[in-house]
Amino acid sequence: MRGQKWSTKWRVWMVVAAIVAVAGVLIARLGQLQILDHQEYATEARLSHVSEDTISGRRGALLDRNGYPLAGSQDSFDLMVETKAWSDSKNATESAAALSPIAGVPAEQMVASVSASSIYEVPVARGLGYEQAQAIRKLSLRGVRLMASSRRVYPEGNLAAQLLGFVGQDNSGLTGLESDLNDVLGGAKGTLTYERDGLGNQIAVGERQEVAAQPGANVVLTIDRYIQRLAETELEKTIEKTKATGGSVIVVQPKTGEILAMANSPTADVTKPDLSDDSKLALFRNKAVTDTYEPGSVFKLVTMACALDLGLVGPYTPWHDLGVFKVDNWTIRNWDYSANGDQSVTQILSKSLNTGAAWLSTLAGPEQFYSYVDRFGFGKSTGSGLGGEVTGQVRTPASDPGSWRSVDMATNSFGQGLSATPLQVLMSAAAIANDGVMMKPKIVKEIAYPGHIQTVASEAAGQVIKPETARTLREMMGVVVDGISPTLLDVQGYKVGGKTGTANLTVDGGGYKPDAYISSFLGIAPLDNPVLAVLVKIDEPQGTPWGTVVAAPAFEHIVEGALPYLKIPPTETALVSGQR
Amino acid sequence: MAAARRQPAAGPGVLRSPALPVVLIFAALAIGVTALLPLIQSSSATSTAGDVRALEAERTDQRARLRALELEIAQLGSLSRIEQEAAARFKMGPPKAQNYIAVDAPAPEARKIPSRYLAAQADKDSDSPSLFEDILDWLTP
């Protein structure tokens, strides 16, 4: 009897122990879930019913110097579809069929992109406009919502396309100023966190936190849309007329360094960027700062500036041209193989004599000559701040003592054997136009942040030559233009100065491409008080390659259009009558 | 004795009161109404939140419309359109010659940058003190 009682008790205790053990395991598991792993499971639970959307701030506009928008942002909508809501194929097909004509995306494509995705929500169409958003909202489709977004619009089309650049799908700048000024234009992104129900809809009284996005700043450029268009039109006309492969035109204000126009051809389409291959990608390069060339005879201005500034020669210093100039064992000849006899230094420039330029550089000597080349900004960045700007190459006795020879300086004196960007070449002429003060090229005039306006001041790079040397050079540039046939260059109402250039086209790996030239005209206007410095550079024109014939007419048309537009009065003699 | 007999009947007397059902009905109604209050409050909050969302969506739409109109204005004022209109509608073309005359009048002022692109002005209302701030200032001179 006693043994039976003990046996019963033992069994009861076993059951109790088992219950306690199970309870203990459950309590331990509960403790693990609720205390030890609390954070992990709480986060998981929160994520399953909380959505976080990134809100982009409105991207700032790029304006021309007069406030005309060159690039602006339009509020748009991205069409988002919940994958769960379209898991039912009938609902998916019907919804897609209703959305397709409005969104302009094939229904099959929408269904395929949603069914192929494992994430909660998929964008099936982007950049929809206000009217499209209204139409979609009226459909009240389950699992379909519109997310506020924005798209970039270029009201002037492809004006200054390579300078402005374009933005990617995430509204970040990829090329040009859109990329260079991305931090300023982009603003700060915000977030919207909200609770959603089982169907994914926002719970009206649920948790909702919004960190507002900050809009980007509007940037006022120094570009003038009228002059930019003028430059682009004249560039295209010249390329078409001469059957050239491309070219660049840059217009700057010498006194401030402000870039009024920067045009390149061939150009790119920023409204519908095509990045399908490298050749199309190359069209987005701003060649005015990213590509170098041998400047040719326009560089004689630098050589002449050096000789005049050092007081080695004056404008009427005599020189006898034999048609050849010996440097070591090398012979320098004129471009037309001419021997001109007694000449003045001014005629070296007006007749563009290579022999004369080589003689002037020899007078100065390598140290002084390259010192002036450096002062004029060759071989170093202009400080424009434009993305992809290169420095060009100048070999000097100091930089390349092993292989530099005297003949290198002789060829450099007429713009061969060194490379520069079109902007560097233009800024050298701008310094001459600005009494010897070289300004840093400037592209941004003002930045209008949401709370304040930042004005970008013009900055001088330095006094590269004496003011009197600059004035003498300007007069000589006037003589150069006087020597050009009025059928090629005759700016009505204004006296202008300039220098032509015709250079051989270099090829990768060294050497020159046969029968391929770069024709250019570097000019300033008006001559007595220059407000414009213009470079017209045409690549590989067919037929006559001379800068006078190819590039000078474009300079004439640009200046004739730009000076009256800028309200620069013409010379007295140009007036048709007295004051009215 | 009579008083002693009446006392135990006091409890059942209340229960037998003819007003009891009415009291109970009112009590039940009061409890019911009270129970509905959170529901009404919740419903009202939901409805208001819904209205807020709808208004936010409308604000987004209107802002989008405004931006679209601004850009439409910019596109209508673009140089290519002006040139196209000048040529097509007004039959204008490039000048054959340019003549310069002096006029005794100042040049027109340069175009000003539209205010919508400039820095936003500070909201004057947000700078002025609220009614409560005024009262607080008055109470604590």
For the terminal residues of chain A, how far apart are their CA atoms? 141 Å
Which word captures the global form of chain B? elongated
Radius of gyration of chain B: 40 Å
**Beta-strand share of residues of chain A:** 15-25%
- Please give the count of helices of chain A: 19
Q: What count of helical segments of chain B does DSSP give?
A: 6
Overall mean confidence score, pLDDT of chain A: 91
| Beta-strand residue fraction of chain B | under 5%
Structural description of this entry:
The complex is a heterodimer of chains A (580) and B (141). Chain A is of the alpha+beta class and 580 residues long. Chain A contains 19 helices and 21 strands. In chain A, strands 2, 3, 4, 5, 8, 16 and 17 form a 7-stranded mixed sheet that branches. A 5-stranded antiparallel sheet of chain A has the order 10-9-21-20-19, with helices on both faces. A 3-stranded antiparallel sheet of chain A has the order 1-6-7. Chain B has 141 residues and is mostly helical. Chain B is built from 6 helices and no strands. Chain B has helices at residues 2-6, 10-15, 20-76, 79-88, 124-127, 131-139.
Concise overview:
The complex is a heterodimer of chains A (580) and B (141). With 580 residues, chain A is of the alpha+beta class.
List the defining traits of the structure above.
heterodimer; A: 580 residues; alpha+beta; B: 141 residues; mainly alpha; 65% helix; elongated
Topology:
The complex is a heterodimer of chains A (580) and B (141).
Chain A (H helix, E strand, L loop, with lengths): L1 H35 L1 H12 E6 L6 E2 L5 E14 L6 H15 L3 H9 L5 E8 L1 H10 L4 E10 L7 H4 L11 H5 L1 H5 L3 E6 L12 E4 L6 E4 L3 H18 L3 E7 L6 E7 L12 H5 L4 H4 L9 H10 L8 E4 L2 E4 L2 E4 L7 E4 H6 L3 H22 L30 H7 L9 H12 L3 E3 L4 E5 L4 E3 L4 E4 L3 H16 L14 E10 L5 E14 L6 E8 L7 H4 L1 H14 L15
Parallel strand pairs in A: 2-8
Antiparallel strand pairs in A: 1-6, 2-3, 3-4, 3-5, 6-7, 8-16, 9-10, 9-21, 11-14, 12-13, 15-18, 16-17, 19-20, 20-21
Chain B lengths: L1 H5 L3 H6 L4 H57 L2 H10 L35 H4 L3 H9 L2
